[in-house]
Fold:
Amino acid sequence: MTSSSFPHYDLAIIGTGLAGLAAAVCAVNRGLSVVQAGNTGAIAYTSGVFDVLGAIPPTEDGDIAVVDAPFAALPRLLAAYPGHPYAVVTPEGIRAAFHEVLDFLRGAGIVYHTGDQRNFAVIGPAGTIKHSWCVPETIMGGCTAFAAKAPCVIVGVERLKGFSAAQVVANLRGVWPQLRAAQVALPEHPGGEVYTEQAARMLEVPQLCRAFAEALRPLVDGVQYLGLPAILGVHRPGDVAADLSRQLGVTVFEIPTMPPGVPGIRLKEAFEDKLPEMGVALYCQQRMDGQLPPPGEPFRLHISGQPTEVDVLADHVLLATGRFLGGGLRGDLEGVVETVFGLPVVQPETRAQWHRADYLDPRGHEIHKAGICVDAQLRPVGPAGELIHPRLHVAGSLLANQDWIRMKCGAGVAIATAASAVEAVAKACAHGDGAT
Ligand SMILES: Cc1cc2nc3c(=O)[nH]c(=O)nc-3n(C[C@H](O)[C@H](O)[C@H](O)COP(=O)(O)OP(=O)(O)OC[C@H]3O[C@@H](n4cnc5c(N)ncnc54)[C@H](O)[C@@H]3O)c2cc1C
Structure:
């Protein structure tokens, strides 16, 4: 086969984490032809809550500053961390990118609420409170109940690991006196351990959902809200929550469980179902590799993994391979390497500087800021700011100078940089800046 007979796309997206999947949505919306490959990214492990900015770690001694108003706090973040990827996107760009992705998810049956100027206080799996800007509809009830400190019962499910109603209540009772815990059995469960995904699929069956409502009914006396682990169906969870709420006469909401959790699985399935329908050539559980082409030539990329072995051409590439968990970075004795194109990685000078002595040091660990530096069009640059390749872009957690775990900016960086990189590709395509 000559390379001219390989399928040829405007854009190849390497990675199917949140950044890669958001990029695919934005690219299709801009009329680009897209090929994409990757394994399940961190997306299946996420809580389903999308953070923009939840905290600013100190650069010197001091405490982490919790962020209540993420957009107003961006200048403070960038003053402390000038190389953060939010430096190359605007607040309006972040909002627009979120709304584009949230519109797509709404079409797939997953509805999100955004906090306008402020973060919501979201109840976490252990009853800790986390501050996040964008929350699934099914989790929002918990934010409202917590804000009002309304009478509420948190209900655990017998033999379901990774969620304890008693623990949630023990951690919140001090600030929320009208909160109590209870436990029910999942009706018609075959026995043994209960898994969140299995429970969610069971509750999509109307008669099982009705039986579950009957089991919950004795627990709602005197409460306005009822919180459950996130098991309210995999598809159209809002309908399951609304159905239970109607049957019980209280607002039923979900609390994220320990990973992997159902809200992350919902996102993964929504993207994987809908993107091929929109025309994306999506190769799930596959790797994509390639080399930087000379000027004027397209990228030639190899997609591998059982059962596929495919070569494709693409004028532009978006690298959204994540950090260590996704496989975009690998640490070895010489240091940290970027695994697809061998791009220069911003990293501590020596391995001894990867971690601080105290694991819980509020400044975080330098290795968690390792990654790729980019220009204003999200194209990788070298140590002296030199452009590596004019048609290669990078998005998501692979980007340097952000510690999404401590800053609570994971989804924000993924979605905003993906949209911004795709916008740059779309403009280049419109100007005819392709390979030939
Ligand atoms: C446990 C956990 C909980 C989280 N909770 C939250 C939360 O509550 N809120 C929030 O905002 N964020 C959260 N995040 C963070 C958020 O999920 C990440 O910031 C975001 O997923 C980063 O997305 P990414 O696409 O850049 O990388 P990843 O999700 O790591 O995806 C990288 C992708 O690249 C693929 N890949 C790598 N190399 C190749 C290759 N050669 N070919 C093809 N594919 C390749 C991988 O298979 C994967 O699909 C959480 C993450 C984890 C792990």
Observations:
- Residues 14-20, 37-39, 41-43, 45-47, 49-51, 259, 287-289, 320-322, 325-328, 340, 396-398, 404, 410-411, 414 surround flavin-adenine dinucleotide (CB under 6 Å).
- The domain at 145-255 is CATH 3.40.50 (Rossmann fold).
- The chain has two domains: 7-106+265-430, 145-255.
- The chain has a mean pLDDT of 94.
